[in-house]
Amino acid sequence: DGVAQAKDGVSLDQLGPILEQSLKAYGVNDFKVEVIHTENASAETKKKIHDLLVKNEKNSNDFIIAYFLQSEFTGDPEGAIGHLAPVGAYDAQSKKVLILDVDRQYYEPYWVSEEVFLKGMVTKDSGGKAFRGLVYVSVKK
Fold first, then answer.
1. Distance CA 64, CA 69 (A)
2. Cα angle 42-47-52, degrees, rounded to a multiple of 5
3. Which residues are within 8 A (CB) of 67 and not within 5 positions of it... i.e. 6 or more apart?
4. pTM of the prediction?
5. In the prediction, which pLDDT does 10 show?
């Protein structure tokens, strides 16, 4: 099949190339994959994430996959691990992000504030090597 697979999850840096391989495997060739590590909650980082959320909400040719510490989003102490989930929507008026959690055994889709969204990503992965963040994918039509 030509698409890389992981047994124990993937890092944010591994996810970018996996998405690229997957898009190519489905015949999508004109796209951009941007891996963004959120190393801090500075005003610059907040603006960048906010701008991506707004851009994503206005565009049907892109998507965001967040990589975050699940306990920050859900309050579940057993969720103290890295977690990947697509962003389903952004409500600019309330500044909330809809997380389409893939762990449907325990979670339905849920909203988190933009502040919590960033807080969950300004954490290091389980190896303590890299900050979490998101992958922004835009596809040309």
1. 16
2. 130
3. 12, 15, 82, 83, 84, 121, 125, 132, 133, 134, 135
4. 0.88
5. 84
